Amino acid sequence: MTDSNSHNGHVILIGAGPGDVGLLTLKGKNWLSRADVIIYDYLVNSNMMRFAAESAELIYVGKKEGHATLTQNEINELLIQKARTKKIVVRLKGGDPFIFGRGGEEVQALQEAGIRFSVVPGIPSPVGVSAYAGIPLTHRDHASTISIITGSNEAGKEDVKIDWEKIAARSGTLVFLMGARKLPRIVEQLIKFNKNPDTPVAVIQWGTTARQRTWTGTLDTIVDIAMKEKIKPPTLTIIGEVVNLKPVTDWYETLPLFGKTIVITRAGAQAESFIHTLEERGAEALLYSSIKTVPPEDLRPLDQALENLSDYDGLIFTSMNGVQFFTQRLREKNKDIRELKGVRIYAIGPKTEQAVRDLHIKVDTVPENYVAESLIESMDSENVSGKKFLLPRAAVAREILPDTLRKMGASIDVVPAYQTISPKPSDVSFLKRLAEGGIDVITFTSSSTVTNFLDRLDKEHHPKLKNIAIACIGPVTQKTAEDRGLKVSIVPDEYTVEALALAIETHFTS
After folding, report:
1. Considering the entire predicted model, what is its pTM?
2. CATH classification of 261-291+423-509 is 3.40.50.10090, yes or no?
3. Domain segments of the chain as ranges
4. Which helix (H) or strand (E) holds 390?
5. Which of 49-53, 112-116, 133-137, 188-192 has the lowest mean pLDDT?
6. Known catalytic residues?
């Protein structure tokens, strides 16, 4: 880090790792959440932008159609320009900034300009990609050294010349980065300098992501394989005896949802557990939030209910959002859970129940099934006639619960605790993947995710949905989707995201 300059901001070079969002370091994630500006590359997983503040300025400086959007000097100038506005500027780079990432050039420019900077290392692609390909780079019986070489490091490219003779003579593992187009040249030079043509080779494309593919062969066969398979960047090539260990040490490519790209449309703040559940099964979880939860436009009905909590016999929560916004407003009104003394608590679904229990409040009734109809059945045995209930919920929701309770002789105050809105458009990677046919499943966890998703999607994209499996968390969401013309093929028996992930797995494995 340079000495602080009070007139400038702070630039943080962060290694994003080789692709999997989960391989971003905690320190990197923390800086992303604080950044005013994020300048990112082609190989950075755009799903990482969910960690950024909504107000952050996102600037893409990678390659489009094979051409760099900005030269390295222009990127250096951009970093300096943004930092001079006294902002926290994150420079997000694939892999590690200082391993063929040109991070050294960027910090030199920052140093000369008097800009404060920090560096957060990332998992280098040789480490991450080889692990996800199930190929250990070292092994006591096969390799005790590793050589990492850039595949584009040739004379005439403003880089140093590769000493092929010395590289070919090395006995350990050779790793070539970004060498897809230069693979014939790499093989030719190694064999020319007496590398055994039978040496095992693995070429891994889009390593650590659901798009990962691995081809294995030998120096003698790998070029023919690459031409036949039309292997394109980004790739990493591993050469050495360790490649033969893959059938034994493979783990990622054998996961049940490996290779599947699954879109999550629920609110970003609630998506993390679902994302992790899918990723544990090998899927790529692509976040494309179609809803965002915010306070209601008018808080007066909720505030009035909070002032008179002792008047109620029961408090009904139908979602985690209801719990969150109810208790948040309770605190804002300088009240706490003591106000709920003597009030019976009802919760629909295990997540809602847990959200209440996390507040150290006992839940009296949880229905067997996680829908309003099941709660009505549970309450029917309690003789609710003459009792008064409070239902803090979304501003727009089904009326079956309050209508039925009134028919049962109860009175109920339905107050909006929150509303769902359509967020600003997410990263365009979803639309690109949709156009390419690279999406396997789209998941919906509520009716509002369905309606907002379809309303935001241009009509020209709707035909693409016919070839994608539609997964809904329960029958209510399913009906909304089908009413809007979608063919739903996945619905779990239990209406939770964990059960939804299992149903998706069953759909593909069976």
Report:
1. 0.78
2. yes
3. 10-123, 127-249, 261-291+423-509, 294-420
4. strand 388-394
5. 49-53
6. 41, 63, 178
